[in-house]
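Practice problem 4.
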């Protein structure tokens, strides 16, 4: 009798063990199915430029690199041409969590200290510029920490290129030629100070509004790198391109911290890696475009004024430094100037 009881007990135990493994297997299968069927993480990247612009190519390269790293786990969606609003609206959207990421060139609207990057003639040459936006670790940490304080994570600093003045009916060869010129500038306080010192009448306008303002005669001039001028078709409403190269205002690829903090660690790491690769790619694309598009603008009827006395613009630029030295900080200005 005892032997029969023992056999029944063993049999019951084996049945329980079998059921345990069956349930475990089903449970693990359910988890695996849930993971594989989980919706991808959506990443919306907004910018204000045309699809042919370097901003869009930068974003597309980032998307490509993310695909290589994480497959379809992240659905990178790109919105060019200001589809999701103006650049100033992108900043607030990322802070509030209604927009994930953006590529743009706004600085003072985020933190006045970042306008150190926009001072006219602050960069000695391209090597100096590269040290500031890519290679000097101390400068990079300082700039990125300022963005972080304002709720933004930087995936890379880029380049828009040397800025040239275009006009409807005036040749600009020296600073005194700017007197009384109604010109659009971006909403950059240090630009406003410099252009006023040069004798112009500067008007801050969002980039998306510039073409119509030129077309309607609200303003007579604007300033931008060749790629921006070409893609926005300013050659249709401007006659002269004057190669002043008075500034080289950086741009940046940033992600809202609210969005960032929700991402898995491995996705964050993939974005940092893709950001560095796409940044370098974007800079090359932009530099190549700016080098070739002056000729294209000339073919489309613009008169290129190459003989410009850039030194004549320096005294006016110094006025901007004087006005903003205390707000931006002498130490930060010196750090940027001395970066190697």
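Answer key:
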């Amino acid at each position: 009798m005892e032997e029969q009881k023992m056999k029944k007990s063993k049999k019951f135990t084996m049945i329980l063990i079998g059921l345990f493994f069956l349930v475990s297997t089903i449970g693990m299968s359910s988890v695996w199915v849930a993971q594989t069927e989980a919706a991808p993480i959506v990443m919306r990247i907004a910018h204000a430029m045309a699809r042919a612009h370097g901003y869009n190519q930068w974003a597309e390269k980032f998307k490509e690199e993310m695909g290589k790293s994480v497959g379809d786990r992240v659905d990178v969606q790109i919105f060019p041409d200001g589809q999701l609003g103006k650049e100033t609206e992108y900043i607030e959207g990322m802070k509030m969590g209604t927009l994930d990421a953006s590529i743009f060139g706004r600085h003072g609207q985020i933190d006045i200290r970042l306008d150190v990057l926009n001072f006219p003639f602050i960069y000695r040459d391209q090597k100096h510029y590269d040290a500031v936006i890519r290679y000097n670790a101390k400068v990079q940490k300082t700039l990125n920490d300022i963005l972080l304080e304002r709720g933004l994570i930087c995936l890379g600093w880029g380049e828009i290129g040397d800025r040239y003045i275009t006009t409807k009916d005036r040749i600009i060869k020296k600073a005194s030629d700017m007197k009384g010129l109604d010109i659009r500038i971006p909403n950059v306080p240090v630009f406003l100070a410099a252009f006023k010192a040069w004798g112009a009448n500067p008007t801050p306008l969002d980039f998306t509004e510039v073409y119509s303002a030129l077309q309607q005669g609200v303003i007579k001039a604007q300033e931008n790198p060749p790629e921006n001028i070409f893609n926005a078709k300013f050659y249709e409403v401007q006659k002269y391109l004057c190669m002043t190269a008075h500034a080289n205002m950086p741009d940046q690829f940033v992600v809202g911290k609210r969005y960032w903090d929700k991402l898995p660690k491995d996705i964050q790491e993939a974005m940092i890696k893709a950001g560095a690769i796409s940044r370098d790619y974007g800079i090359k694309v932009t530099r190549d475009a700016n080098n070739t598009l002056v000729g294209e603008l000339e073919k489309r009827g613009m008169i290129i004024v190459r003989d410009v006395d850039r030194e004549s613009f320096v005294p006016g630029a110094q006025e901007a430094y004087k006005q903003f030295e205390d707000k931006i900080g002498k130490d930060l200005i010196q750090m940027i100037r001395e970066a190697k």
